[in-house]
Design brief:
- By secondary structure, this protein is an all-beta fold.
- The protein has a single domain, classed as Maltoporin, Chain A (Beta Barrel).
- It is built from one helix and 20 strands.
- The radius of gyration is 27 Å and the shape is globular.
- The two termini are 22 Å apart.
Length: 450
């Protein structure tokens, strides 16, 4: 909802309520036999409210300021069947898990632009104060694996707050050439490790992950704005990176629980990502537009001292001290990506006919934090196309996705991998799994707007 408070000031309110439920049963071992199966179900509810006042006209000083509030609650249940451990399908599950998470946050924000030199130079400054509260309650009942049991409502709570900011300047050399620089900060929320196995680790939690971003860009148009060329360079510095680690799993008497290790999220790394992006667009004719973009990344750890493999002392079974793992590659950070797109539009009869085709390439990249051999995603290319005819309130589209039927994975994951050695580059994992990319898909879509 918006209201014009004055000719130059606008009051805006945005509210949202969302509720979802899910229920899924999965075969987790990928074989014909009921070795590892589970059912997960739960619900999620979220409410957000934002109100802001802005001034966008009538002065060289424009601004907006407001408050934001969010609340969410979710439940998660899981029944797990492990046939090899004496559990039978249709009978009592090996483990029954229950989790309840709640979170609430509020923030106060403001940002302003100051236009100088006949509005050729614009200075920008903004800040946001954020406060977050999170709670986790988890229970695990196990039969016959009693050592995995968690008392009811094991977990904890934590509160985090921070101030993030954005500072920038842009200068318009001509109507067709503009350069800018910005520096900004942000954070990924802290929280609690929902898959931990002991009350102590469940309650310990982890801090927010912080990033500082520096960006320099050039925005240009040429030949009566029929050609567009944009350049962007950036650097992102990460602090307190959130890393999944193996930590000791012990009961209150110091005895091992399960394998003696458990997964938890810890703040254990620093990283730097340098990048460059080029975007170009050419209006070849009034009905044909060609565009493309290319991105280059150099992502690396500055610091990563962790026991990422869960290495144990062979004599005592205790976890070994952290080691320097900063030579590993960051996950999901391909060095090269690019896309080419052709879009054509014609007036046909009483409507419009559009033909769009795009071809994209993504370089290979690591998918797991350990860079375990065989878990990387190989480079792949995707060809998509669509032909759409729009007339009045109707739209009919014939589309094709992944027309070359590219066979690749979208992600992969390994469970309890063993550290590679000089003589064995892939000594094994408990198991691993991956998600295959959707094969070639051809379809038709019809829309009616009213």
């Amino acid at each position: 909802m918006t209201a014009n408070v004055t000719d130059d000031h606008t009051l805006t309110y945005i509210g949202n309520w969302m509720r979802s439920t899910d229920d899924q049963s999965l075969d987790g071992d990928g074989t014909l036999y009921p070795i590892y199966e589970f059912r997960r179900w739960g619900d999620y509810e979220q409410v957000t409210n934002e109100i802001r006042l802005s001034r966008e006209t009538g002065s060289i000083f424009t601004w907006q300021a407001g408050v934001f509030q969010a609340w969410a609650e979710g439940t998660n249940n899981q029944d797990t069947v492990l046939t090899l451990l004496g559990c039978n399908l249709g009978g009592a599950p090996c483990t029954r898990e229950y989790g309840l998470t709640t979170s609430s946050s509020y923030s106060v924000f403001a940002e302003a632009d100051l236009a100088l030199m006949d509005e050729k130079l614009v200075l920008t400054g903004g800040a946001r104060y954020i406060n977050e509260d999170k709670k986790l309650a988890r229970s695990v009942f196990s039969n016959p694996l009693d050592e995995y049991q968690l008392p009811p409502n094991s977990g904890g709570s934590r509160t985090d707050d921070d101030v993030i900011y954005r500072l920038g300047a842009r200068y318009k050399f001509t109507d067709d050439v503009m350069a800018y620089f910005t520096t900004s900060t942000g954070f990924r929320s802290g929280g609690l490790s929902p898959r931990a196995q002991t009350p102590e680790v469940l309650a310990s939690g982890y801090k927010p992950e912080n990033v500082t971003n520096y960006e320099l860009g050039l925005r240009t148009t040429f030949f009566d704005r029929r050609v567009l060329l944009n350049l962007t360079a950036f650097r992102m510095d990460y602090e307190d990176m959130q890393i999944e680690l193996a930590v000791p799993s012990l009961d209150s008497d110091g005895n091992p629980v399960g394998t003696g290790t458990q997964l938890a999220i810890r703040n254990a790394g620093k990283a730097k990502i340098d990048g460059f992006e080029l975007e170009a667009e050419w209006l070849a004719t009034d009905w044909w537009r060609l565009s493309g973009n290319v991105g280059v990344l150099d992502a690396k750890y500055d610091e990563l001292f962790v026991n990422i493999w869960g290495d144990q002392d062979p004599n005592t079974g205790e976890l070994l001290p952290p080691q320097d793992e900063s030579d590993l590659d960051l996950r999901r950070a391909p060095e090269l990506t690019w896309t080419l797109t052709s879009a054509m539009d014609w007036n046909v009869g009483a409507g419009n006919l559009a033909w769009r085709a795009s071809y994209s390439y993504t370089d290979d990249y690591e998918a797991t934090i350990t860079n375990y051999p065989g878990s990387a995603i190989d480079s792949y290319s995707i060809l998509d196309s669509s032909i759409t005819y729009s007339f009045g309130s109707w739209m009919v589209s014939l589309f094709g996705r992944n027309l070359t039927d590219e066979e690749s994975w979208t992600h992969s994951y390994v469970v309890n991998p063993v550290r590679p050695t000089a003589t064995d580059s892939a000594p094994g994992t408990l198991w691993r799994f991956a998600q295959r990319r959707a094969p070639r898909e051809i379809g038709m879509e019809v829309q009616f707007k009213f």
